[in-house]
Amino acid sequence: MKIVVREFSRERDLEEVEQVERSCEVGPASKISLFTHLLGDPLCRIRHSPAFLMLVAELVEEVEENGRKLERRRIVGMIRGCIKTITCGTKYPRNFRSYPTVSQKPVPIYTKVAYILGLRISPSNRRMGIASKLVNKMEEWFIKNGVEYSYLATESENEASVKLFNHKCGYSKFRTPSILVQPVFAHRAKVSKRVTILKLTPHEAEIIYRRKFSTTEFFPRDIDSILNNKLNLGTFIAVPRDAHAPINWSGPEKFLSNPPESWAILSVWNCNDVWRLEVRGASRMGKGLAKTSRIMDRVFPFLKIPSFPELFRPFGIHFLYGLGGEGPKAIEMVKSLCGFAHNLAQQHGCSVVATEVGRDDPIKTGVPHWKKLSCDEDLWCIKRLGEDYSDGFVGDWTKSSPGLSIFVDPREF
């Protein structure tokens, strides 16, 4: 018996991979669990990245049949990974020391990173070192492609995952952003009448993001690819009413040269067309109460009852990313944008709106969410793979202190 790790082939592996996915989704009957439906595409969560790879682990056994020795192969695990270039730090331009009196802003330092996700091992084949083999093989591909750091996200309560990556594979705790989840109600969310919301073109959004957010940790260098992706439903900016009426919008350059006192921005990513989630293990009474709340919300929308959405069958999500803003009323602007995004998700038949922000990011207070559905501390772990660094100003990024904000790539949520 041996384990062979190789690249995923849709033609020969799809059925077996889906079987392993389903077997890994069997949780304790007494507990509520969250399961992912990949809609027939095991690559759906990585295929929009600049470079990606999926590996499968095959268990090869020798069997005897009619006096002949044969090899029997079956897939018992898989892992996914993608590569991109992101911001890992900042520095001042080279001429800053020569002209210290000139007002200059720091510029981003980029590095090539890899993200690991979707590690699955068949329950009957665990504790055989298969997960370590998959991680090691994936890291070989990362290194071959010039990756300097590899990182992943997991739950701090997932002891098996933490033990595998932190104790066996050399990863360490790095960042702990917060995942904020808001149900989509039957009634429309309130959007402040003191706020005007404008939709930007991908090019306009790119200009603002690069000018204002490119020094934020994990900012993707290929932000233009994200904004032009078909899954991106748009970038929206909130300003005080009448400050920048749609008919007077003169473009991002003039906006940035003379911005209003307060403003905020976010983009919406449509996960609904790529994958869906499902809550399993809820009691019959719990499902009944949730259904009753939805009926009441639909019949009496003016009461604005915070109904519990239909999460007990596959449901869609809109992911909000690139949240930010400036000014004393930026939080109010963010709240209005989130209300607008809620109503957009309602139009698209989604049950949940989610985002992920820095744990101590001030913007967090402006994002409506249910604590019971959210995760205050999503654990990100990192490992240094390359000896050569993109810039000497950074040093060893794994030992750096976190900033207030973090840019979460929607392609990896």
Automatic annotation (TrEMBL):
* InterPro entries for the chain: Acyl_CoA_acyltransferase (IPR016181), GNAT_dom (IPR000182), Plant_NAT (IPR052810)
Return the SUPFAM superfamilies for the record.
Answer: Acyl-CoA N-acyltransferases (Nat) (SSF55729)
Kindly give the Gene3D superfamilies that the UniProt entry links to this protein.
Answer: 3.40.630.30
UniProt xrefs under CDD domains: NAT_SF (cd04301)
Q: Which Pfam families match?
A: Acetyltransf_1
Domain (N-acetyltransferase): residue spans on this chain: 3-198
Q: Which GO terms describe its molecular function?
A: acyltransferase activity, transferring groups other than amino-acyl groups
Query: What's the protein called, per UniProt?
Result: N-acetyltransferase domain-containing protein
Origin organism of this chain?
A: Saponaria officinalis
